[in-house]
Amino acid sequence: MNISKRILNMSPSSILELAPYADAAKAMGKKVYHLNIGDPDIKTPSVFFDGLKEISIETLGYGPSRGIDELLDAQIDYYKKFSVEVKREDLIITTGASEALLYAMMATCDDGDDILTCEPYYANYEMVASSVGANMVVFPTTVENGFRLPTKEEIVSAITPKTKVILLSHPGNPTGVVYTEEEMELIADIAIENNLFIIADEVYREFTYNSEVFKSFGTIKRIEDRVLLVDSISKRFSACGARIGSVMCKNEELNAGIMKLCEIRLSAATIDQICASKLYGVDKSYYEDVTEEYKSRRDFLISELSTMEGVKYYVPAGAFYVMPELPVDDAVMFSKWLLTDFDIDGETLMIAPGKGFYCNSETGKSQVRIAYVLNNGDLKKALKILREGLLKYPGRN
Question: Virtual CA dihedral for 254, 248, 85, 220, nearest 10 degrees?
Fold first, then answer.
């Protein structure tokens, strides 16, 4: 018997590919600091768990395929904060942002179609695209230029006859870039001129620092029938385990298509939806406090990277990742070496090799993604391991 070529051709997640080595290190009694994945350590707001205690359902049945009204209405109010006018029929609740991305790609792409994005991109985009039979085509951005968008000509030159979608993470994962209004209008122009959809992954919209102001792609009226907004409670409320996301789309035909996919899985988890709806009632100070905490972590991380010889970095304006270039021959081998051959007093570090965030793995060969999802005390210990590891790694450049 042969399994599908689609599955065989899918690459493993670069974010998790070293997990067996981390598990082996833990089995040996080592403590592993995880900076490889965006799984925050900040406490989930207590209203989520209060909502769980308040549930008095006698029979736990399916919910509506679109999502329960309480959660849809909570998201409608939330979007107003970003000047995005949304109705219930524009929203679909999904099992995390991953399912939202899957459905958005399935609704916009046929087998063999191309999805245009910038390198580096969130590693799982390629996995999702591959699962629906689509291909990633890219235009480059660089650490030296702060991962800003290139010129219109450079972006358009990457478009193929089979390109159907522009996919962008905003604020960026793994880059932390927050697009300016001018950059967003540029993408809107390109989408209109080339008849493309835009999938905007905006799950980090709350996390912007300094003077950066977030603007949603959903505010650009002239492309509202082309835009699919992907969202999630995972990062914003430190509720990754709840698996609640959504896709917002004002294109009626697309929306109806996505609903067909939702009906296959019947509904997202009803209890998680009920509890998630409570999260949108948190006070404004919650968002301010969490953003300030991530800014503190970012600032500490950057201050440490700035003293590591040979490390190239930039200061991310949003999200909670940084994508530095390390003075090593191969970031995969270095990341593996940290887990198998290096520790400080029984403690070591897991980071995500950069190659999985590029179509051409050679481009990100010496880069890693670091998620600053640990408190500054643990972050300090983790970065000490990185610093000492870089000095002692046999393949240092």
Answer: -70
Below-50 pLDDT ranges, the chain:
none
Per-domain residue ranges for the chain? 5-43+285-391, 56-279
pLDDT value of residue 10: 82
Topology annotation, domain 5-43+285-391: Aspartate Aminotransferase, domain 1 (3.90.1150)
> Both tokens of residue 47?
């209203």
Report the alpha-carbon distance of residue 238 to residue 40 in Å, rounded: 6
pLDDT tens for 350-367 read 999 999 999 977 889 999
- Alpha carbon distance 291, 78 (integer Å): 17
pLDDT in tens, 165-181: 999 999 999 999 999 99
Give the separation between CA 386 and CA 389, rounded to whole angstroms: 5
- Separation CA 169–CA 122 (nearest Å): 8
Fold of 56-279: Aspartate Aminotransferase; domain 2 (3.40.640)
